[in-house]
Amino acid sequence: MTTSMKTLSTRIDAISDTDLATALNAFGCATIKGLLSPEQCEGISRLYSKDEPFRSHIHMARHGFGKGEYKYFSYPLPDLVTTLREKIYPKVDLSRFDAAPLIAFNATKETNYGNETHG
Length: 119
Prior knowledge:
This protein is α+β, with helices and mostly antiparallel strands.
């Protein structure tokens, strides 16, 4: 595991399981500010303009879901996404949900390194 992934793993360990569960139960999602470093955000953001890391590209308007688009990563997943899944999913009692919550993140340069969890 790289130093960057170890640091991410440490930040995930600091997330309150209770706060995370409360946000997921109340809103169906949770925002964890400062989880990714600026470098991690930039690295994952740079992938979006490429085709190779992704197995499919969805244009929402084509399916009648409004404006916008999203992509599904191909396997093997990037190390960052794998670490997020492996460390965050065990913090959540997934048996309480009809489907596993998705890990979605907005990779921006705005960062708050607190461990706040917001819905």
